[in-house]
Amino acid sequence: YREIVERAVRDTLQSLASKFRVPKLSRDALVALLRSRADGGADGEKRVIAAGELAERRDPVHFDLFISLLKDDDPAVARRAVGALVTLKDVRAVNPLVEFAARKDPQTLREVIYALGDLGGAKAEAFLWTLEKGHEHPAIRQAAHEAIDLIKKKR
Predict the structure, then answer these.
(1) Is the C or the N end of the chain the one with fewer CB within 10 Å?
(2) What is the DSSP letter of 62?
(3) Cα separation of 15 and 12, whole Å?
(4) Quick one: CA dihedral 113, 70, 79, 100, positive or negative?
(5) pLDDT digits (tens, 9 = 90+) for 117-131
(6) 22-42 pLDDT, tens per residue?
(7) Cβ proximity of 67 and 76 under 8 Å
(8) What's the sign of the alpha-carbon dihedral 40, 70, 116, 24?
(9) Taking Cα atoms as reference points, which of 143, 148, 141 lies closest to residue 124?
């Protein structure tokens, strides 16, 4: 499922990039764009694209920036930060992702569940176990179960 999700994200980003004709920007320009607090719309979509481009560079120096984007006013930017953190494969993202997951809609929560399954670790597994055993939505319980299985397979 991970390859399918990555392909869908890549295709969406390419589509948006061509739609808005966002040129390849330098690292500093991408960071500046992400730190801007645009009011959604085209600017928000450009920030999502910028987050994707920066994530594709897989530079761990951007870890703190992606963590800060989890609190972004634009939900699309915050969700893109989740994917960026998975791309960096840094388990330090688990705690901020667990905090981010609180009070999120089921779709966003599922994205975080799969991110935690990909990152792994005891804290991620404990959170997923709690969701698997007690969340009100069957789809969330199932996603948590699948993510736990993924963590176990990586051991």
Answers:
(1) C
(2) G
(3) 5
(4) positive
(5) 999 999 999 999 999
(6) 557 899 999 988 988 755 555
(7) no
(8) positive
(9) 148
